């Protein structure tokens, strides 16, 4: 430990020994020495002028941080349902065989640790994994022996990347095999556009006029909640406080979503332009991009783009010669926590604490980051805002439906011929999306990710919009070969893993839901179990504190609603009222083990 | 008095003051909204969700939601009572609560709430998690089997004792209360006179050597149901 003291002190000093940058400190300690040793908690705490237990609180919250020593290379196999259906389990088996260790273990020589992780945003090129920060896509079992051999000889995961992906994935600062898979470019975001045209026009107007334009355009938040962006900016501008903040939610954690990955690769300038427009409108000098830990391979590239904008006078002081308009952006790295996509959790995380959500009275627009007025918007929303300023609010609102203006980026994945990014006008029918993606024999589509809705063919005529099928981007396609309740079960497992545990219904209710769903899937359920799932799900939804718990029962509730026959086929009233999940012989064995003797009555 | 406003709870109009939460206003009016994590001396955090009410059509935790003029609140509806019962059941099955062996029995707010709601056994299966018992402190016992993660101790230590003995660690079902010491409570600056030692609603933080000073049968909730003191205010 003593040899680590200078390193740790140096890292803390780099972040000004500022308690609000604790996330960055522990992340960097982890990067530098492979874990955050418990013996270091006290030192980090004293350097950052906080308490030891606060450091433990942060380190124990994020799944990419660990107080246990890990291998030089940490392999994180993506374990979402799309990857599983594309063969992730076979990849897992091959990794176990080649490495000679199980999940959660490290090879004896300390080289490689094997883990599973939630969706890493590569569902269009699944199965995929991360090896440290390097993303490895399109895995196949036969590739694993060579891959493991190479990592053993040279524990430098970047060397696994031999063929680059398209577009900026091949940029010297990215060097990734990730592919964009842009299948449909719509008029707002993925078509060619006039760089910084929106910002230049915005600066000819007053901030109030910019807000008015955004309001007139009817732009609503692209993360899924659909709050009016112009109104959010107005409330932030009007809220009292000397410092205001513009935050970009790039914590794209909803399983099956990967459109922000593509925007951050191919439309970084548009994102930063939109943030700058927002800063001008709101009166903010500081912006933060909260980048999910899974996308850290894009970090250097993003930093470089920001630097280029500083040099070009598009970030920094007196932007584009506008005296007194100062705005700059920093990146806050996440560390593996889905809940941090919830805006108040995201703010907690930016402030260097664990990512617990906070109460939404006051709302972030009044008291957000550093208790100051803060506008948190999705990556895609900023892109839309910049384009609205360039092309006009009328142009934007003429696209889409009356209540859902503009286009939506969809991340389509699963059982379809062309998984990838589709920019379609709002109102596009789900059936049309499926046709574009080449999906046939579809039994179920999960729209909006696990927190969204699982719908069947009866709903395919509905349109993608806030009023019909709402989604932050995730569209997961499941063919009639798939077990729909296996999907729901995997989603509940996801929520159990990702609940922050702050409030009771989400912490406990999701575990109970998952357990009962498992019982039903095993054929041990009765019709009463379906009522149990329904009522428990409703309580979790109704009483949970943040958006995570308020949507986490959706996999169960939406399948109970839309796929009732699947459940009905599994639960049968057996007439005698006995609980099928109760196994008398197993119970007797357990009791015999405790008593230390065999039952006189029941024995095999 | 310019801050006086009117809100309606279950059809009854009551007076409230701007700056109050729904829970505080209801308490003053003699209307009991069940709660667990909330404590009059501590900042509310809305973690247990037992005080969930419907406020202008939307679910809200009464302990954190500030009142506004003209708010219409539902408190004792069959739907809300069922949700609250479900949450109370969840707290029983996520821990290991053996009331008959617990020193807190009769003074326990979780147990008292269960009685008030007529719960004789939880409807959900017990999870039987493995939890630690920390007896390292000379005067205080920490039995995580009974913790409901209300974080009263966390707040009391910070807000009332000027210390930072407790904090939440881990996440999800594995979330627990951690202590600000190398290993255990005995390594912290916790003192038996701290308010944090007194404020646990359940039997997680127990003082040593004073067990059963008040005999079972003569304890707080043996005499009147939880909430009676608040309802007694009602004229």
TrEMBL record, chain A:
Q: Where is the NADH-ubiquinone oxidoreductase 51kDa subunit iron-sulphur binding domain?
A: 485-530
Statement: the UniProt record of this protein carries the keyword Lipid biosynthesis: no
Q: Which GO terms describe its molecular function?
A: 4 iron, 4 sulfur cluster binding; DNA binding; FMN binding; metal ion binding; NADH dehydrogenase (ubiquinone) activity
Identify this protein by name. NAD-reducing hydrogenase HoxS subunit alpha
> What SMART domains does its record include?
NADH_4Fe-4S (SM00928)
UniProt keyword Iron-sulfur, yes or no = yes
Signal peptide region: none
> From which domain of life does this come?
Bacteria
Automatic annotation (TrEMBL), chain B:
- SMART domains the UniProt entry points to: NADH-G_4Fe-4S_3
Recorded protein name is NAD-reducing hydrogenase HoxS subunit gamma
A cellular component annotation (GO) from this entry? membrane
Q: What InterPro entries does the entry give?
A: 2Fe-2S_ferredoxin-like_sf, 2Fe-2S_ferredoxin-type, NAD-red_Hydgase_HoxS_gsu, NADH_UbQ_OxRdtase_75kDa_su_CS, NADH_UbQ_OxRdtase_ferredoxin, NADH_UbQ_OxRdtase_Gsu_4Fe4S-bd
Q: Which organism is it from?
A: Pontiella sulfatireligans
Q: Which UniProt keywords apply?
A: 2Fe-2S, 4Fe-4S, Homeobox, Iron, Iron-sulfur, Membrane, Metal-binding, NAD, Translocase
Q: Taking the first listed entry, what is the main subcellular location of this protein, grouped into a coarse class?
A: membrane
Q: Where in the cell is it found?
A: Membrane
- Name the coenzymes or cofactors required: [4Fe-4S] cluster; [2Fe-2S] cluster
List residues of the 4Fe-4S His(Cys)3-ligated-type domain. 79-118
A Pfam family the protein falls into:
Fer2_4
Gene3D superfamilies hit by this protein: 3.10.20.740, 3.30.70.20
Question: What are the GO MF terms of this UniProt record?
Answer: 2 iron, 2 sulfur cluster binding; 4 iron, 4 sulfur cluster binding; DNA binding; metal ion binding; NADH dehydrogenase (ubiquinone) activity; oxidoreductase activity
Q: Which residues form the 2Fe-2S ferredoxin-type domain?
A: 3-79
**Tell me, what is an example of a GO biological process annotation in this record?**
ATP synthesis coupled electron transport
Q: Can you tell which superkingdom this protein's organism belongs to?
A: Bacteria
Record bears the keyword Iron-sulfur: yes
Family membership, please give it.
Belongs to the complex I 75 kDa subunit family.
